[in-house]
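Hi X.,

You mentioned you wanted examples for the new student's onboarding notes, showing what a folding record looks like when two proteins sit in one file. Here is a clean example. The first protein comes first, with its sequence line followed by its structure tokens.
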Amino acid sequence: MLKCRTVWKKLAPLTRASSTVCRQNVRRAGFNNGRIPTYVPAAHMSTGPAGGGRDLQMYAILVGATAVGAGIYLYQTLKGDGKRYDERIDEISTRSYMKDLEEPATPIESEPPVVEATETEAVPEPEPQAAPSPEEPASDAETVIAIETTEPPPAEEPVVEAEPVVEAEPPAAPVVEEEPSAPSEPSPTELTELTEPSPAPVVESESTAAESTAAEPTEPQPEVVVAESAEEPVVEAEPVVEAEPPAAPVVEQEPSAPSEPSPAELTELTEPSPAPVVESESTAAESTAAEPTEPQPEVVAESGDSAAASLDVPSHTPYLLIGGGTASFAAARSIRARDPGAKVLIVTEEPDAPYMRPPLSKELWFSDDPSVTETLRFKQWNGKERSIFFQPPSFYIKAEELAAAENGGVAVLTGRKVVHMDVRGNKIKLDDDTEISYDKCLIATGGVPRNLLVIERAGEEVMKKTTLFRKIEDFKSLDKVSRNVKSITIIGGGFLGSELACALGRRSSEFDLEVIQMYPEKGNMGKVLPEYLSNWTTDKVKKEGVKVISEALVKSVVCKDDKLEIQLKDGRLVKTDHIVAAVGLEPNVDLAKSAGLEVDSDFGGFRVNAELQARSNIWVAGDAACFYDIRLGRRRVEHHDHAVVSGRLAGENMTGANKPYWHQSMFWSDLGPDVGYEAIGIVDSSLPTVGVFAKATAKDTPKAATEQSGTGIRSESETEDTATSPVASSAPAPAVVQHKDEYGKGVIFYLRDKVVVGIILWNVFNRMPVARKIIKDGEEHADLNEVAKLFNIHDD
């Protein structure tokens, strides 16, 4: 208001002077116009007044506009000045109030230093041990403001606080003693700082430091608040130091940085008691009542949960492998071989570490150990026992220790699913919203078992009596079912269906179990083997005690009277207690959408190049990879050895090898210990085939082969030995081979454009390098009988 009055005093004379001048000008203009006659043309006809009235009107309009503009400007100026004046007055009036509010925001509860004082001894000239707050530096004439909170805490959580102590300027002014004020809850700023665990510094004066150390073993000092751990927040009183000497300044204790204690604090940290202790003359008697005070449990629980979640999963890993199957383990082993200090993290949905899947449908079913479902150990055909797990648990390190491991290692994060993949940001998100960043990533998600649509649509009762065989849990479940039911029907005539049929057929006589196998083909493995060999295999499966129903197309499945009725399209009806659906594998490409990766429309799976690369730092291996074979074109393979080979190659390329996929993986299947075969390349019964057979001997069985190689997983015994190149005979092409009813051992060649693209070794083992060399050469052969001699099938 003072400013407005001053402005008005300055502008009022100017306004009055301008008004006087305007009136004088108007009067003078009227007199002049009256004295000077105006010349009016004779021919001019006008309805308006004669004379200079128009000029006077224009002058009046200009003067009026000027006055209005000046008034508007004056109004805006006065209004703005008034607003700024009010804001300044408010700022000045609230400055002291804001100062009071800012002081409690300083972190005082995390780990405040403590100054001890006794009743008999005064503290002579204590030196400040804690760094003062950057907002309010300590001074001699400063007032210590008490901490006040507006929200009362629960009654069972009292907190001791300090009452404001006014520091007196005269030398002999006493210091007001501390008294416990009303309990209060820590502020949000204090709660934030309480979540940072660190050792609590203890600050003592020079005169009492030695006494506390000496008195500690015999008689502990009474405590106001005892902080048992860094995770338990305690609101403590702000320490006050009595200043008896005239020149002794009162030290205002501010919380020091929790992570970097001062040298004096480091000296005091050697004492056994890690908790800060506040003692004074007035609080010594009240310490007993304050000791049972419990710190806020909700803060401790919240910080503990977040700390456990952060420790469980590393936030970053150089090598991330998605999937816990054979391909991931082979890649991890390859990465560590080329980079011994590599840190590899495997994330898998399954609750188990990486293991081999083939024994789940082969050797485990022939074990005599009744606890095989728990031990998961089996005897190979050569009699040696081993586990299905690639390595024992001691081989892996904990996921939370991976980042700090000096020599690196392999960690497995079980029971976690990757639900989102950010390719540009190089990070993934788990099903619990945890994010992990990576430098290089391998996708080895494998596949999920397919099911028949008629079974999926049949309802929940039918699904409960159906097994989709893939994991350890499926093996345990089917083993239990086979011991408690009377009939099991296996739908599918491929590798898995035929292996399970033979395995369960062996139990048919022991447990009085009926085993039925049905498939749409004419014989077992009809999509792989030639028709004559498929029929022979079917007879072999029947001898194992399996009832085979060929050319069976399922029309519907219903549950009646606790039995499953399978209606076939040709009218046949099959009743059974349980169904095992073994109708193929669907590659798991759930991450393709979020990652923006291409899925092959013909073969399925992630589309990758010859180096198994989908992006510059993303590779795919195993069943989920649709790769480019430099010899056979684009393919997708679902076999154990392919997982080993592709995983090993992907691991090498992740460490900079840049190798193409030229190694032809093999696969094998055993119909018990007496009949087995190994295959490589493209084996499709729709291709032309040439078979060369010989009489089998006692050593031409899977059991004998494993005894010779020393392992039941024959793909692991494969080497990169260089085989001799087959010599093409100059003789004309042989006539059609006449097949007999007995096929002891032999070689089946699959041809495409007269070039061998696939080979099956029937009861011929440890000859895979020769077959791999033939496919790699890609030459035409006039006489395949001569080529078959390279496999020594005629040797006794």
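Then the second protein repeats the pattern, sequence line and then tokens:
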Amino acid sequence: MESEQLYNRGYCRNSYNSIASASSDEELLDGAGIVMDFHTTEDDNLLDGDATSPGSNYVMSNGGGVASSSTHLLDFLEEPIPGVGTYDDFHTIDWVREKCKDRERHRKVIKRKSRHGEFTKSLYDAWSGWLVVTLTGLASGALAGLIDIAADWMNDIKEGVCLSAMWFNHEQCCWTSNETTWAELILGQAEGPGSYIMNYFMYIYWALSFAFLAVCLVKVFAPYACGSGIPEIKTILSGFIIRGYLGKWTLMIKTITLVLAVASGLSLGKEGPLVHVACCCGNIFSYLFPKYSKNEAKKREVLSAASAAGVSVAFGAPIGGVLFSLEEVSYYFPLKTLWRSFFAALVAAFVLRSINPFGNSRLVLFYVEYHTPWYLFELLPFILLGVFGGLWGAFFIRANIAWCRRRKSTRFGKYPVLEVILVAAITAVVAFPNPYTRQNTSELIKELFTDCGPLESSQLCQYRSQMNGSKAFSDNPNHPAGPGVYAAIWQLCLALIFKIIMTIFTFGLKVPSGLFIPSMAIGAIAGRIVGIAVEQLAYYHHDWFLFKEWCEVGADCITPGLYAMVGAAACLGGVTRMTVSLVVIVFELTGGLEYIVPLMAAVMTSKWVGDAFGREGIYESHIRLNGYPFLDAKEEFTHTTLAREVMRPRRSDPPLAVLTQDDLTVEELQSVINETSYNGFPVIVSKESQRLVGFALRRDITIAIENARRKQEGILLNSRVYFTQHAPTLPADSPRPLKLRSILDMSPFTVTDHTPMEIVVDIFRKLGLRQCLVTHNGNVLGIITKKNILEHLEELKHHTPPLVTSPAPPPSTHNTSPHTLPLRLRPSVVSSV
């Protein structure tokens, strides 16, 4: 019994934080519609915002209580209270409490296992994790195959239709030689200026139609369906709650609009949003199993596995998907989550392979086979491509964040439909004349990766050949470049500039938009140009010391397609700052396991160069831009500040509101709640002794009082409220007291005022805390929340000296208020961040 009571004390750890939610649809379109302001004080409340606001859901843990005595005091352990274990929107979960709840659930399952008929339930509970990831993998693979097929068909319809079979895409229609352009269909002619203008017009018409339909569906039905989704997934996996972001409406609208956005020809990809789609599937299926639906921490294990399945179907890279989930998005990744992520990625890849959306009997579109090995001297151009990738990543992050910040702060951001139409129109008008920008980005990458061979008809493979004194064209790249190659290089240079500019303005639009494919396309273009340059250099100067040892005259030496693959990995690494998972994704994507060393060299170089300009990747930058409460585990804290320098309240703030353990009345307690907006209160021994007893949440107190009045007679305004084990001595004519020990967190996390902030930040990261109390010799001085830490890190990043305050002296005993102590400090928002 004693051990159970000790457990319940630990179980009763419930504290909440909040940040302002969106107030309009336009704000909702900006990611989660919230922006954390590190300089305002209007929201500086203790924990979850105002619990008395309409629509609030009260949350209370059942713990810490002991059986009632002969006074028949209400004890909340006897029956569940509505709202227990749930969280409001834009709140952070309590990882410690959720893990305690799961351990208690598991203990009960084991205890009932020996009973008759309970073995099947325990078996179902044990296998529910595998069932939910299986369903997630099946749904993710099926949706990914559907999106791939639909996007290819709608992208090809911009250039023409297949009259014999409307459901055929461009490649399938060519098999029957029945492809018809819009000029042939409308004007009856396939050549001439009129035909070109008509095809040009129809291309722009379809692009604008798809883009307009996509942004309208997002704005009207599911504002959360816009963007990549990975920054929000990272934040959700860290414990933050964004209601509706992984719901069924978001899933349905994102699936439809992702097809439309890709088909519109905008400089975006579908790979990032597929992670969001997979996580929506995981979230929906988790509600079928109480083990996950009633525990937010366990649900995030499913979401980690779902993100692995999303990358698996996006690139056909199941192992890379698991590593992506581990390296990039997951905050808590136990070993069993690793196994289930692997299984979910396997199931999703199997389903996608069964659907065979690319028609090549492979998981991926970019599978290549190179016939020439790489040589040691090629590491130099590979590293140069890595440098280019790092520079591009740093430039893109700064430019895109600057544009997104301007969008938020100007009137232009209030018209998302107009912005999407404008960007789509510019993209279509500029893209059509250039064949490398007109075609689908995935097809462009495939062409750039492909090595020249007898069956290749691309301009990139038109080399000159000397035969019997006559000039002819050859597909052998170890010959002088022909006019087609030079024309292709100029077109690729223009395509590179176009892609760089349009990707900056496209990522962040209010349509589903991924960044993987556009970044890879930029790197592939740059890599192919560098590859052709090195190839021609080796041909004309094969006697140089760099080429003499490896490149014989007339022999295969340089593979330009390999340079495109390395450049694609380098640019994607420069933008996202991924390393291990990126290398594995690329060699799974292309089948180029032999070229893993060049990939590793380029990716590491791009990361080092990018980190020299800023350690944040594009996803972390957007998390900071949107103000999400995310503590990045990769960020180092090297400053020498102490807890007392960061804690709230500061000297100029109003005093900290606290509760005494046994001398408050219901009326006084309600007065504290009505007169303050704090959502949590430290409980101390008495006005004379400020030693900490525990921590009580505002909403727990409110729901406890309401529940007591509804279910127990005799609870009046002058009833004594106490948080102790036994009732205080009261006069005989006193009304029945109210015991609230069951809602008291008996073991709140505390640190002393001299604790280094380096340790405090580490505690918050590893335990997933939302707040901890600061004490001096056992007396409460203040509180530190996750938001306070983020504010402090922001101040240090901008080299703003933090406001240093010395610890206040012990509170005076001549306090006129029975419920607050003049600590001369004021708590900031112990926001549920």
